[in-house]
Amino acid sequence: MPIINVKNTMTTGTSATPLSGSQYEYLPFNALVEIGVTSDVNAVLATVSSGSDILQEEGPVTKGTLDVFPKYPDEYTLQDVAAAGDRLKVLLRNTNAGTANVLTSVRITPI
Prior knowledge:
By secondary structure, the protein is an all-beta fold.
């Protein structure tokens, strides 16, 4: 079961796409995809999609502890059954007045 863990340090007003360039950005097989995103500050927004499925329109991410990746299963708030070739996309946007540390975890279970 592949797991992707990515930390983004984002200054005020910046955006990030943590899964871009990952080996699993485009799924090589059908899979159950579970996603958790946390930030050490409030006001970080995420838009999440799996193929043509919108899992979360732009909305707040879970407030978490600095440098602690989302805890499974409690903080993995999004899941989808995705087909081979589907693109996993997480778009993060920092609307906070300061720097945010955003931790993204994706668990991919082949089905």
